[in-house]
Task: structure prediction
Amino acid sequence: MEIAIKENPVAVDISSERKNYTAVIEKTEAMLTELRNKEITVCAIVTNSASAYAAALY
Result:
C-alpha cells in the first residue's frame, strides 16, 4: 500500500490479498491506521464481497 499512496490513488484494490471477511476487516483496519498515521483523510470505504459469496455456493 505504501507505493499506492505515493501515487495518489483514488482506490486501492486488495481483492487478491484477502479471501474471507475477517481478513478483509483486519486489512481494512490496518490500512485506515496507516492512513491516519499519515494524517490522510478517508472519505469513503467501498467493499464488494460478491466473489466470496459466489465461491461459497459451490
